[in-house]
Amino acid sequence: MDKDIPEEFLHNTGNYYSAPCLIGHWQERLATVESTGRNIKEKQKRGTLKIQKLRNLMTSLLQPEKLAMDTPLITFGAHYQLKNTDVPLYHDSVICHGLYASVTVDKARLGFSQDFWESCTPTAAPYNRPCVRNTITIVSSDPRYDRSGLQVVYEECICIQFTSHNGGKYYLHYDSSPMSGGSQSISLKTEIGPYSIFRIRCLEKNKEKTPIPIDSKVILVHMASNKMIAIDKSWVDTFYGPERFMSCRSGYDARRKLISDCVWTIVGHPKHDVSIIYRACLGENIPEELLDY
């Protein structure tokens, strides 16, 4: 008989609960299960379940974006990607051909917002299709002037902007002041300030004030600290898979040689190669990254 009665209903002295007490417990448990089911159905109708919020958030941040096309030079206001191809890209579960500056969401804020927010973390991600979370816009460091369509030149003060699917504007920000705690991590801010201004520097000498060709390898220097945007060594798990954090560092090793973590390529829409599509139609095994667009 002991086996037929749930253990949680046994009294500490070994005496059994009375039949009316057991019935009360069962009815209470049944009412709790039914109430939980009704709450879940109501939240599902309102779209407030965490799984629904996560699905909507991932969908909104992966909405496709169009990169700048047929523009040999970098211009203000156009859409680009920041790509790093010079760092080791091997990971247990990732095979990638470059890391792209992106924005990843904070799990703690998932229930409060379905968009970017200031506590979102910039990362370098292997996901290469142009979308909301990995597409940037180069804008003027002075918000009073709209320089859209004008060419960007080396050593010019610029801001790097991410735009959410709702049109919100967020800028890469690095606070190097002692009040920030000395952190090297990069964050997002909704307003342009002295710690959101960068310069695009060429790897070659004597290129100051010259237009920047698309797909050029550059370094991004933070004006206030003179440090460079770099990729951290370790991988972290995010909603979108393994990625790397971005930070600001000196950019040089002990021998004063520029490290590859700080070298970026400003990427626009690639030109279509009709021959690759023709070769794929004939059955040739074309690498996936060549057919992404």
From TrEMBL:
GO cellular component terms given for this protein: motile cilium
At the top level of its lineage, which domain of life is listed?
Eukaryota
The GO biological-process annotations, alphabetized, read as: cilium assembly
Known InterPro entries for this protein? CF161 (IPR055325)
Task: Provide the protein name.
Answer: Uncharacterized protein
